[in-house]
Every structure is written in structure tokens, then in C-alpha cells.
Amino acid sequence: MTQRLARVCTTYLRQQRQSTKHVDNRIxxxxxxxxxxxxxxxxxxxxxxxxxxxAPAPPGPTFPRFSRGSSLFGRRRPLSPLERVSQLLPQDSLxxxxxxxxxxxxxxxxxxxxQSQKGPTTGEDHLDVQSPRDDRDVDAQxxxxxxxxxxxxxxxxxxxxxxxxxxxxxxxxxxxxxxLEFRKMFQLQEGxxxxxxxxxxxxxDIAGRPAGTVLxxxxxxxxxxxxxxxxxxxxxxxxxxxxxxxxxxxxxxMMMDVSEGDIVLESGSGSGAMSLFLSRAVGSRGxxxxxxxREDHHKRSILNYQRWRSTWKLRRGEEWPDNVxxxxxxxxxxxxxxxxxxxxxxxxxxxxxxxxxxxxxPHLHNGTxxxxxxxxxxxxxxxxxxxxxxSLPLVCERIIEVQYRDWLLGPSLKKDGTFNQRRPISEENxxxxxxxxxxxxxxxxxxxxQAPFGSxxxxxxxxxxxxxxxxxxxxxxxxxx
Length: 481
What we know:
The chain is an alpha/beta fold. The chain contains 15 helices and 17 strands.
């Protein structure tokens, strides 16, 4: 479209010059204007029927004349944004820089015209000529557009799913009649097999498959293989002492109001469950100092923490933040360890936490929380007595016990495995008469494929295996007395 328009304008320009030369033997420059109605460069009608003498040009922005080089090659040099804007403004309001830019442009066109006069053109009459600089600009723009499209596509589709590979921790599940019969967390290793009472699956068959795959065991039973969450990892990992259960750990995190970038003190590393939850809460900009008095528990917590970090790297392709610093020692006598430190919150899982509070409270920010994890009510009594007899600026705000109740909810089944059906209320059933139905109607009611929506009754009851008492959570806040 642009080349065709340039050819029309060039032809019309030559005709005007020839007609003017025959009239007064001199060339009169013609000013080309661009109106708002179209792309024409003449002030005449857009139909092109008016061939009479030129009329005065209407006021408006003017464009420079086409050079000889433009008429030869059929395409002008691309205009810069400053040149485009300057052509839309009144000529009197243009600055000195704009006029200098126009002069440099005229010099470039003159050089192009001289080069075209030196050597004859070959091939087609109209060719697109661009400088190497223009080619580089076009390539840079294409690369920028392609990069933006790639970023937009990755933002919409998200990260690419990774298949299960050797070295990461996986979880195997087997359910029968919607009831969990088997669950085991294991590490995928080359040459090993997943052993269970429901069959064997070689690890080689698992590697390279996406998470959530269902494979058949050697006995032909379906086994679900997937990646464990952090909650499931803490429940199935190897333990030394009892762990802080996820239901209690999440409640403690809410109590302490832990956010990204916080510095948290933990006493009682145990098996490392609470350390993992704190590590995820504070993020890469925060840190956790975990103190454990027993050496075996200290080693176990470090192993579980490192195992989760390696599993996370294989799963996501990125490093889990190395923000937990484990220390073997007694918090009661750890004044040198805490010297010069301050904490946004404190989590204590100790037998006698009231003995460690005098060493911890001075390093706790004012108005922040110290959450205490206690298993027995007698420990709570000792803690409150210790606060009453001491002059520590702590206030007990809350003592809670977190309880979850699992429920079983499913459709009502018969002994043969078919669904029970809801029977509509009719006059015959109200009068106590027997409901007479054909064999086809009975088969339709017992068929699970033909059961319409809302026709199957459901049974709900608490799960027979309930998690009992785990711990009490005490919320202490530091104040200024």
C-alpha cells in the first residue's frame, strides 16, 4: 500500500513539473498536504478528477517533498517519532533541534540521490532499500516482541510439569472401596522395588512418569504414586521424638504472626517438623535459629531438613531457602548464643519452658508473641506459676487445644456393590401395601450407570479412627510494664 501510494505521488509530481515548465519556463515547488480524510498528498479531490490549475493549499500540517531517491526506489526512509510529531505541529512552534534533524535528513537524502545517479539500477524498478542500522533496529524489535510473547505464554501456562525422577521422595497409596488401605513414603532409587502386601512395583517403572500416575502392582491392584506435600512429609518422615503435628504447627504460626523476612527463635528442634514450617513461613529473606539439647534429636532434625531440600530441588528445579541454623545446646544456658540478636517471635517446645524464659524474653521484640507447645496440663500450671513469681513482662493471652474430626461421607451401597435408590413416597407405600415392580425396574434402580442425579442416598458419620489429644498451645505476649 505504501509503495503504491509513493508511485502515484511521484508520477503526479513529474506531471506537475512538466506542465509548470511549459508555462513560465521555470520549476515551481509544490507543497504537498495531508488532510484528515485520507492518505492523499494533494489538496485536490480524492477522486482525482480535477486536473485544473492548482488551488491554494488549505491550512494544516505539511510534509516534505519526495526526493529523487524516493521516486527511484519507491520507499522513503522510516520516520522517527520526533519527525512524525513535528509534522503535526505548526511550523513556527518547532524548536531548533527539530530543524537540525530535518537538515540532517535532507543531507542523507541528497547522498542517496548522488549514489543512485552514479550507478544504474538493475532488476525491478521498485526495491526496498534499508540501511544496516534499520535492519538492526527491525531485528531488535522482532526479538523484543518475541521475548514478550514468550514471557506472556509462560505466565499463562505456568511452570512446566516435571516427571518423577530418582532421588526424590514419593508417596504410594492404595484405596479399596473408598477406604485407605495402604500409604507409604519412600525414596525413588534405581534398582529398588516398592514392596507391599498388595504387590510389588519396580522403581524403574515409576521414574520418568508424571506425578499422580496410577500403576498396577504385581498382583494387578492399582497403586497411586504422587509427590507428598510438606504436611505429609512431616507425618511420614523418620522421627526421633514426637513431632509437632501440622494442625498444631499451623495454629502456632498464626499465633506468632510469622511473615516473610522474620527472624524466629525455636527451642526443641525434635525431628525438624516445626523447623520446616518456620522455614517456609519466613522465606529466603528471613532466618530461623533452632536450638536442641539432645544430640540425637539434633542430628535427626538436620537430616530431615536436608532431605526435604533435596527433594524440593528435584521437584521444582530450584533451591529451598537454606534459612534454618541448627544449634546443639541448652537454651537455658545459651546467653552467649543469643548475645546481640533480636527476634520477631519465639516458639518453645520444652519440658520446662519457664526456666528458659528469663534468657529469651530480653531478645524478644516488644509486643510480639512467644508460643509454647506443652503436652500436659501440669506443664501449663508450672508455666503460669513461673510467670507469677517472676517479673518478666509477659502476659498469657490464650490457652487452646486444636482438635480435628475426620468424617466419612459416601453413597449408600448394597452388599453386591450397587447403589441403593431413594424410593418416592406413594399412596401404596403409605397404606402399607407392598411395592410391586418388574424386574426391569429393579435392574434400572440398582444400576449405577443409569442412576439419575439426586436418586442415590448418602451416609455420613465420623471416621472411626480419630486423632486424639496432641498438645496445648499457650500464647504469651511481651509488653512494657
